[in-house]
Every structure is written in structure tokens, then in C-alpha cells.
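ping. complex inputs:
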Amino acid sequence: MTISTRRAKAAEIASVKEISIKAVWERFSDEQRRELDKEPWSRRIGELFDMMVKKESHRVFIAEDDNQALLGYVWIGEGSNPMTGTNHGYIYDIFVKEEQRRKGIGMRLMEEAERYCRKTEYHEMLLMVAVTNQPAQKLYAKQGFKAEQMYMLKRLT
Amino acid sequence: MTISTRRAKAAEIASVKEISIKAVWERFSDEQRRELDKEPWSRRIGELFDMMVKKESHRVFIAEDDNQALLGYVWIGEGSNPMTGTNHGYIYDIFVKEEQRRKGIGMRLMEEAERYCRKTEYHEMLLMVAVTNQPAQKLYAKQGFKAEQMYMLKRLT
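pong. complex structure:
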């Protein structure tokens, strides 16, 4: 099987959107899901996705096999650091199909994202990862990412 | 020495601003400082501080001793989670003077912030802390905060 990566076509963005929204929902805690109404939430997050992804500074790259089946994607766009006032490349989402993992596809997608960031002349690339997701953290560390800041949360209810 | 906490008066916000901006600058990496011009940066961040702190949902509480000397402060305001679409209390800054640390002042300030969040009916309180700042993380954990998400960064230059 040959794996290739390329910029996503408009029609493929619909699949990316569906997978991305499903992943966001699944990452929520039980408390968060209990407080949300899934239908209006899905509509709102879908509109947010559409609004973000079509920005000039945003790119979606996909990985596919010989049969043009979608194996994974990375969504990169411009983020900004309110403290420094500078912009950077921000990984909004990265995904590899369950049965396609541990084949280096995520690495290939990250390379596409990095190439785009260098071309755009960002000095930094950022991403956010769950503190509990150590396998992902290890992969990112292998690619040169360093843990910087973490969010801590307290439930008040 | 009796330590008391209360909402900051308008005149005290100027001291808070000065300390807060100095702390932001000191937390930057050498690379970040090299890329920034300190004078225009200070002006911009000062304007950002003024704009944020005067919002209806923002509060600054200070700790003081019998002589009304400023020992520390906490700045809390509304944050929002773009994924859930819900608002929460966000600790923009918390500070205790070097020589006043390990006396429970930070804890008292966090209690003020939490009281404000409960009154405002936020279901969550969030803060951000450097991954390397383990003493602060331990204090926050003691107060019921749990690490959630972390930023990882790669320099491209």
C-alpha cells in the first residue's frame, strides 16, 4: 500500500468535519456532555468549523492509500499568542483512522503541516493535547514539540 | 500580622497592572524576548490589560496587611470554551510577593476568586500554569484543580 498526502479537496472537507465534530464530542467529560444538548451543540460547532476552516490561513491535508480512501487528516491554521502579540501555526485537529495507526501516517501529516508553517514563516507551531494522552505526547515530543503550559480545571458543581 | 482580602480599588489596579506586565515579560523564553521590542510590546500589553480588566465580568482581589501594604492579588474574569460554547471563571493572574509566600496568601486569594465564580454561577474554574512550575501545580491540585490539556510547542527557527 502506498500512502500519499495532499491538500484536501472541498468535497473531502465534509468528511473531515464529521470526524472532527465526533472526536470533540467524545473527548468531553461526562459532566460536560450532561450539560450540553447534542443537537444544538452539533449545529453550533458545525458552523464554527465552517467559519474557521475556510479562512485564508487554514489548510487541511489528508493521507490516502492507492484507492483514494481517506486514512487521516491534519487541520492547521493561524493561532495567536495574546501575550507576545505574534502569530503561529496551530494544529486544530489531527486524526488517523484506528486501523491505520502506528504506520507513520500521523508523522507524514505533521510533516505537511510543518512544511506549510515554514512556508508561511511562522516561528512556532503549537498544539494542544490531553494531559492523560501520553502516547500522543510521546509522538509529538519525537517530532520536536515541548510541553509548555497546561490548563487546570476545578468543577464547582 | 493580620492578612485581609478585598476587592481592589481603582487606584490599586495600576500597581497590579505593573506587576502583571513585568511577570508576563519574565515568563517569556529568551527566543520570545529576542523577537519582541520591549517598548511597543509594553504599550500593547498595557492596553490589552486595561481593556480586559474593566470588563463587567472581571474582578481583582488583593491581600493586604495591617498597614494596607499590597501582599498579592488575583485577577479573575470570564473565559469561554469554544468547544462546549459555555463560559467559566478564568484566573488571568495570581501573584504573591516573594517575601510573603508560603503563608497561605495565595490560598486566601483563590478562595476569593472561587467565591466570586460560585456567585456568578460558573460551573468551572480554569487556570493556566507552566508545565515546569510544579510547586504551583501542587498548590492548585490541593485546591481541587486537575490538569486537563497542555500546549506543546515547536520552534521552527
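The longest helix of chain A spans residues 10-27.
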